[in-house]
Design goal:
heterodimer; A: alpha/beta; six-stranded parallel β-sheet; 44 helices; B: mainly alpha; two-stranded antiparallel ribbon; 6 helices; 2 strands; extended
Chain lengths: 1017, 209
């Protein structure tokens, strides 16, 4: 009979083990969560959510169990389960760790175990030990045989075996053979599975699903109940154990099986009595967390738990366990019928008192039982069907209501109380008043001075509408008629109307509301034109500071130097232009607009004149149309009546496209210079930027500087000269190091530059430009016709002027222009040049000559050499010019540096100019203010001034495509190349005084502000 | 005619100066005249100096290839004008893409070849040791001042950096303050320069100088 209990009947358990070993869990999909836990256990991923990560309480409880078991509770299990347990085992397996481990587990702790079987190996050893003991006592070898041949046999000493029958099975009558078979089967499967891992009601189902109750009862034989002895392993369970099996905790809670289910299917009610759950129901800790069960049970040694119930099964007197009204058992509230899902349809008409009743109750279960156990043994029991029961379907993975103490470690550093917005607000504590800025302190003080809330009664309508309105809507802290902020508020009519509505709703009385409204001034539109007297005062002060120097008042400081320091960026810039040769092309970019024209027009004027003085031909371009217009106007003013557009200077096209356009211009210069701004042909054939001898850029902002430096300068070998406004100077200066053309900044450099240009223009004779006397007859051709025209003008003007003074000097000025024309010999329109020009034709030239004549009166030549030379040292702080004669109208013949020591040959009659000799032997004149004599100068040392040279060499190399006829001029013309900066000196003094005024205004304003704040207004 | 221009300039200058008394109609008229004239002039210059020469060189040649090339900008410009349409505005992205993409590429190349490399090579050249050191410290400290990536933030959102970094950042902040102060001061001097030029202009008109 016992043979019918084949091990295959429990193949589901084997399958579990096998599948676990094979990594196949398909047979138990509903237990995948258990399997997954086991599989992933060695990874120890603390952040894993779900079952493992969310149940750290298991670890705590388990650890606590171990610790306390070592003291007084689990001494017996500690020996069997030393240290190899994985405390993090969950579910069925993990929860059983409290029962102790096995030696095998100790030896192979890392062996993967299934959720059910693997963790129950301790039962195997325990059973073996117990069976050995029982065998020794009763001569029974049933367990060993079962393990050997996978069959179950019962020896004759059944009485001894019955002692191993659990108490709760003793009530089954008759149970002799059946219980023995059950015990055999139970023990025989210990190798594979321990049914204690499952709820007992499951065990009941396992045995009873496919077995006919009647047959079972008949086959049970005559086992004597009195002979049943509880197995030693049950006896050895210490009585003081108060730890409930954690598997029960997990499984039952997960399954959420009702109390009735338990009572019906596994006989817990039969064992424990109905009072068990009644006691649970009366547990006072309704708020207790179920998951605290283990720890609380372990901590509370005096309480009784399911272990006591287990002990009660081992003792002979099956007294119902007395469940104390303990919080530890609050978890069992989940078994309350009303709190659980509907129970499976079972027959509950008869109360289950014993196993027979229990089995009888299973008759009406939906499970069909086979007629015999053989069929049962060969029938595959789908364990999954159990979990398909509605009671299981409603099982949800345990979602522990994790309290803060169970927060995963990776969340330990994160605190909502620290990062939430509310927490941040909470942490914003008020700073001490003295730490606040003065402005806030004043505001705080004003806030304290606000009138208190009115104690007037609440509007009855509001009080009726909203009860307790006094608490909800306290009267507004506004004093009517008193000086307050409300009086300063100017409301619009609409705002006034709304205030009236609000006042009616919230004001203390209607009279107060009316008074409030009556105090409001009439809404008036804001004045759009209001004179700010402070602004006006500041403006007047600055304007006066700038204007007064124009009238010779308050001229503070010195004028900018009239010369540039050698080696400076200013001098380098000047030398770049001054070194131009006749006919050189100069790319002139006027990158500024109307707002900067007042500052940068000075540069445009001075540099254009300088270039033209040297015979160069400027080609004006710009990416700013206004700048192009300004430069065009300046060039036209300079060339008025003397220079010819598109011959002596060019105004190119507007460069569009900003950076892209500038890059395009750099790579295709000819397309933008072939035509002028008016769309007329310029006659220029420029192939690259290298055709320019110099590039001059007048800029008002750093953007233009960067554009030219980045898009133009890298593509040419020509030096680039920048003239920048003051505003752009801080960021323009760094580029000075990489632009070899020099850098001019602001009005100061413009002043110096213009003075130098004036000196050149005054020193130089008037430029006599060639005039064309014949009209060219050549028709414009599509193909460019290159004309090379070289004109060399070597005027040697001779002019006689008879002075009425003692000194009579004849100045002869004879201009001889010898044009040389080379080119297409077919051209008949070669310009003819008047060979002789009588100067001065213009007032400027006349004045120049008049001034030039003046020095001829005073100097007196001394032909006798002096025995002793008197030296003088340059006392100026900067380089000074040495001129050809005693006056600033004479040309510069040399430059002396500060501290230079030169021999002084003589002086003029009023000793305002000294005649000196340079190292190279050149004689010149220097202002007496700039030279400190080292001795007395003989009066007779007068050196006649050198005769002014009136030679100008003009050389043009014109490459032109004549598409139009040049305008012939019948007369010779001259160009006035002196700069035209009105009030040049006055502007400088005005700027100086204006800066001083602004600084004073800022200082006084700050001082006044500080005083005002300290007084609290 | 010249006198008319000078007188107009004189009057407009006074109208602009009337802003001292606050925003008024005279000032606004002057500003409108300036803006309007500038816009009109720019339009005329663009048409005469850019568009007409372009069409003459391309479409005006009669060559189909040149004509096609000449019409490409017209097409892109038309797309840009369609940006005002909600339906066809997407077409304008093509032109904008050209502008932005090519502009970025040109600016990048120019910045490297025209500014970055030359300035790097010239740093310290022609300067004494002190200047070179100041430049080095200024650049480094200013860059560190704008370093926010590795700042640690406290729960209340305040960025906290290491003490040495804070010290260097303070130096960089000082350089920035000096730079901005220099720019501001330079702007004031420029304004004074222009103001004095206008005063000189007005006086020249009044005094006949």
């Amino acid at each position: 009979m016992s043979d019918k209990y084949n091990k295959d009947d429990f193949s589901w358990l084997d399958d579990d083990d096998n599948n676990k070993n094979q990594g196949q869990d398909d047979d138990f999909p509903d237990l995948d969560w258990l399997t997954d836990i086991e599989d992933n256990e060695p990874k120890r991923d603390e952040r894993r959510l779900g079952v493992t990560g969310e149940l750290p309480w298991l670890d705590d409880s388990h650890t606590q169990t171990e610790e306390e078991a070592s003291e007084d509770t689990f001494d017996w299990s500690k020996t069997d389960q030393p240290q190899a347990k994985d405390n993090r085992r969950l579910g069925v397996t993990g929860e059983l760790s409290w029962l102790g481990g096995t030696e095998e587990e100790t030896e192979t702790p890392s062996t993967p175990r299934s959720g059910v079987t693997g963790q129950l190996d301790w039962r195997k050893s325990s059973f073996e030990e117990q069976l050995e003991a029982a065998e020794r006592a009763a001569g029974v070898d049933w367990g060993r045989d079962a393990a050997d041949d996978n069959t179950y046999s019962v020896d004759d000493n059944e009485d001894a075996l019955e002692s191993e029958i659990p108490e709760w099975l003793r009530g089954a009558e008759p149970v002799d053979e059946e219980l023995a078979s059950f015990a055999d089967a139970f023990d025989a499967t210990a190798d594979v599975v321990d049914d204690t891992a499952l709820p007992s009601w499951m065990d009941g189902n396992m045995f009873d699903d496919n077995e006919d109750e009647t047959a079972l009862i008949e086959d049970e034989g005559d086992t004597n109940e009195e002979d049943l002895v509880p197995p030693a392993w049950m006896v050895d369970v210490p009585e003081d154990i108060n730890e409930s099996p954690s598997w029960l905790t997990g499984v039952t809670r997960s399954a959420e099986v009702s109390e009735d289910d338990l009572a019906t299917e596994d006989g817990l009610s039969d064992l424990f009595g109905d009072d068990l759950f009644a006691d649970f129901d009366t547990a006072p800790t309704e708020e207790a967390d179920d998951f605290d069960l283990l720890s609380q049970l372990t901590a509370n040694q005096g309480s009784t738990g399911l272990t006591d119930l287990l002990n009660s099964t081992a003792v002979e007197t099956p007294d119902p366990p007395e469940i104390e009204d303990d919080d530890d058992l609050a978890w069992l509230r989940d078994f309350e019928p009303e709190a659980t899902s509907p129970a499976p349809p079972v027959n509950r008409q008869t109360e289950i008192q014993d196993v027979d009743d229990f089995f009888a109750s299973l008759e009406d279960t939906p499970l069909e039982f086979d007629e015999n156990l053989d069929e049962l043994a060969n029938t595959d029991v789908e364990f999954d069907d159990l979990f398909k029961d509605p009671a299981f379907n409603e099982v949800a993975p345990a979602q522990p209501q994790t309290p803060d103490t169970f927060r995963p470690e990776w969340l330990s550093n994160v605190s909502i109380s620290e990062v939430s917005a509310a927490a941040i607000v909470r942490k914003q504590q008020d700073r001490p008043l003295e730490d606040l800025p003065e402005r806030l302190q004043i505001l705080h003080e004003e806030g304290l001075n606000l009138p208190a809330a009115s104690n007037a009664p609440i509007n009855p309508e509001i009080a009726q509408l909203i009860p307790d309105v006094r608490d909800a809507l306290p009267p507004a802290p506004v004093h009517v008629g008193a000086s307050s902020i409300a009086e300063k508020i100017v409301l619009t009519p609409d705002q006034t109307r709304k205030v009236g509505i609000l006042a009616n709703l919230s004001a203390s009385s209607a009279a107060a509301a009316e008074a409030l409204l009556s105090d409001q001034p009439e809404a008036r539109p804001a004045r759009r034109f209001a004179i700010r007297f402070d602004r006006l005062l500041i403006t007047v002060l600055i304007a006066l500071s700038v204007i007064l120097p124009f009238f010779g008042i308050a001229r503070i400081g010195d004028l900018p130097p009239s010369a540039m320091v050698g080696g400076s960026r200013q001098e380098r810039a000047f030398e770049q232009v001054d070194g131009l040769e006749s006919g050189d092309l100069v790319l002139f970019a006027a990158e500024y607009g109307a707002t900067s024209a007042g500052e940068l027009d000075t540069y445009t004027d001075a540099i254009l004149r300088h270039a033209i003085l040297r015979g160069a031909r400027p080609v004006i371009v710009s990416s700013n149309p206004v700048g192009l217009l300004r430069a065009d106007n300046r060039a036209s003013a300079i060339a008025e009546g003397a220079l010819v557009r598109n011959r002596d200077y060019y105004v190119g096209r507007y460069i569009v496209g900003s950076t892209i356009g500038m890059r395009s211009f750099s790579q295709d210069v000819s397309s933008l210079t072939r035509l002028d701004v008016q769309g007329r042909s310029t006659g220029l054939e420029i192939t690259s930027l290298d055709d320019f001898a110099l590039i001059v850029v007048i800029v008002e902002n750093t953007e233009s500087i960067r554009t030219w430096v980045e898009q133009v300068a890298p593509l040419t070998e020509a030096p680039v000269l920048f003239a920048s406004s003051y505003a752009a100077s801080p960021l323009a200066l760094p580029y000075e190091a990489i632009t070899q053309g020099g850098l001019l900044v602001g009005y100061q450099d413009a002043y110096t530059y213009s003075r130098l240009v004036d000196e050149i223009a005054l020193d130089a004779p008037p430029i006599i430009l060639p005039t064309e006397t014949s009209t060219p007859t050549a028709e414009p051709t599509e193909e460019p016709v290159i004309l090379t025209e070289e004109i060399e003008a070597s005027p040697t003007a001779t002019e006689e002027t008879v002075l009425t003074e003692e000194v009579t000097q004849t100045v002869a000025s004879t201009a001889t222009i010898e044009p040389t024309l080379t080119g297409d010999p077919t051209q008949e329109n070669a310009p003819a040049v008047d060979a002789t020009t009588q100067s001065p034709p213009s007032p400027t030239v006349e004045a120049t000559i008049e001034e030039a004549e003046a020095p001829t009166e005073t100097p007196r030549a001394t032909s006798e050499p002096q025995d002793e030379e008197v030296f003088g040292e340059v006392s100026a702080q900067q380089a000074v010019n040495v001129r050809q004669g005693p006056g600033r109208d004479f040309p510069v013949v040399g430059v002396l540096q500060p501290g230079d020591r030169v021999p002084v040959l003589g002086a003029d009659d009023d000793n305002s100019w000294y005649n000196i000799r340079l190292e190279d032997g050149t004689e010149g004149w220097i202002s007496a203010q700039l030279l400190e004599l080292e001795g007395e100068l003989p009066e007779a040392r007068l050196v006649p001034p050198s005769s002014r040279g009136m030679t100008l060499n003009v050389s043009y190399r014109r490459v032109a495509q004549r598409t139009e006829e040049p305008e012939p001029t019948a007369e010779a013309v001259t160009a006035d190349l002196t700069t035209t900066i009105p009030y040049r000196d006055e502007r400088w003094f005005g700027m100086t005084l204006g800066i001083i005024t602004i600084v004073l205004i800022i200082a006084i304003g700050n001082l006044f502000s500080v005083i005002q704040r300290r007084r609290g207004r | 005619m010249d006198n008319i221009g000078l007188i107009a300039g004189f009057v407009l200058t006074l109208m602009v100066f009337s802003y001292v008394l606050g925003d008024n109609i005279l000032y606004r008229i002057a500003v409108y005249v300036l803006v309007g004239l500038s816009a009109g002039y720019i339009t005329i210059v663009t048409v005469e100096s850019v568009l007409i020469p372009w069409f003459i060189r391309t479409v005006g040649t009669g060559n189909p290839v040149n004509t096609g090339i000449g019409l490409i900008p017209v097409m892109l410009a038309t797309f840009l004008l369609l940006k005002t349409s909600s339906r066809l505005g997407q077409l304008g992205n093509l032109a904008i893409g050209f502008i932005v993409g090519i502009g970025a590429a040109v600016a990048l190349v120019g910045a490297v070849t025209g500014t970055l490399i030359p300035l790097t090579l010239s740093t310290g050249r022609g300067f004494d040791i002190l200047n070179t050191f100041i430049i080095f410290v200024g650049v480094i400290s200013t860059l560190i001042y704008f370093q926010y990536s590795f700042a640690r933030r406290t729960p209340n959102g305040r960025a906290v950096r290491l003490l040495p970094v804070q010290a260097i950042s303070l130096v960089g902040q000082s350089f920035i303050v000096v730079t901005l102060g220099a720019l501001y001061g330079a702007a004031i001097i420029t304004s004074l320069t222009i103001f004095s030029e206008r005063i000189a202009f007005l006086l020249a008109q009044v005094m006949g100088r």
